Amino acid sequence: MSQILGVKFNDYGQVYFFSSGAFVVQEGQSVIVRTDQGMGLGKVVAVRPGEGEEPEGEHKPIYRLANEDDLRTVAENERLAREAFRFCRDCIRRLDLAMKLVDVEVHFDRSKMVFFFTAPGRIDFRELIKDLVREYRTRIELRQIGVRHETQMLGAIGNCGQICCCRRFLRKFAPVTIKMAKEQNLFLNPTKISGICGRLLCCLSYEQQGYEEFHKQCPKIGKRFQTTLGQVKILRSNFFKKTLSLLTEGGEEKEIPLEQWQQISKKGQAPAEERPESARPESARQEAAPREEPVQEEPLAGEPQEALAEGSEEASDAPREAQAGTPEDQRRSGRPRKRRRSRRPSRPPKPGE
Asked: 6, 107, 147, 290: least CB-packed within 10 angstroms?
């Protein structure tokens, strides 16, 4: 029965799985495998027994076990990579290219050399490729990478004092946003929440799912709610202690467990400041409704006083002829009334006029 082998080609690379085929392999051995880029030498980091007959094409079998000659070839390739790094760096300075060389990788059979670099934008490196091909007489690839991949390849010590996660075990970079830092109540200091690469810390995404589930159970911060303790305001929440800080009507601050909040909160009731008008008591709505005072307009000087409003007690007792008025009054009441300006008092004559 064949084995399933986990093979890594470098310290920071991804683990690829192969079948042992007819070989018996132990963890820590080096094997030669055939990849899409050609032949390569990798180190076995995991071994597990195969589950019965492996489907054809599920895992590629290894080519063979590595021997002493293969290990010497790898050592020579590493020496060639260091030499190519220095030569390429000198060419970059001579051509005055705005790029930074990070690493050089030489394939096992020397069929290809890959130069990794970072740059703020697109680089015209056609002359650089010509110099490299003329020097090494093999296929040359220049691959631009980001600052996070640069830190992964070179390695560094993080703010926590340990080797960066991207160098130790991270194989894929998950998106990290500033929203994660806000939801975790972190102090938004760029030097505290950024890594060696200058980007947000990858570890911010490790506990994000737990924070999201916790915030779904918590009421909104800053809102007021009706509870058995009266009206309270939510001040803050504590993820580690699973508690809420409340401000009561008396100005007292209380910290209660999240489970207790589910008991004292009135379920199905909207926050106090957002409760709809129909849900408020009748007495509260009557007190809140402004009282409308009847507005009486005073007649202007020289105009007859208009009839009282319909429905009033005096208007119902008055005769209809008096309410209707004369035809002249009806025509006058149909036209818009003009407000008369009061005459200014004449100023006293000045002496000598």
From this structure: 290
- What is the residue whose two structure tokens read 């009054």? 329
Considering the domain architecture, whether residues 224 and 166 belong to the same structural domain is answered as no
Residue 292 lies in a domain: no
Question: Can you tell me the mean pLDDT for 39-46?
Answer: 89
The tokens for 15 are 């683990």
Contact between 129 and 142 under an 8 Å Cβ cutoff? The reply is: yes
Question: Whole-structure pTM over 0.85, yes or no?
Answer: no
In a domain, 107, yes or no: yes
Domain that holds residue 165: 151-205
Cα–Cα distance, 293 to 131 (Å, whole number): 94
Residue 339 inside a domain? The answer is no
Task: Please report, in angstroms and rounded to a whole number, the separation of the first and last CA atoms in the chain.
Answer: 132
Measured between alpha carbons, how far is 1 from 22 in angstroms, rounded to an integer? 9
Give pairs for 211-219: CB < 8 Å, separation 24+.
Answer: 211/180, 211/183, 211/184, 211/239, 212/183, 214/239, 214/242, 215/183, 217/258, 218/244, 218/258, 218/261, 219/244, 219/261, 219/265
Amino acid identity at 102: V
Total number of domains constituting the chain: 4
Distance between CA atoms of residues 313 and 342, nearest Å: 35
Q: How much is the pLDDT for 21?
A: 82
pLDDT tens digits for range 222-248: 899 888 888 899 998 889 888 999 998
Residue 92 belongs to some domain of the structure: yes
**CB-based contacts of 200: which residues, under 8 Å, 6+ apart?**
176, 177, 178, 180, 181, 193, 194
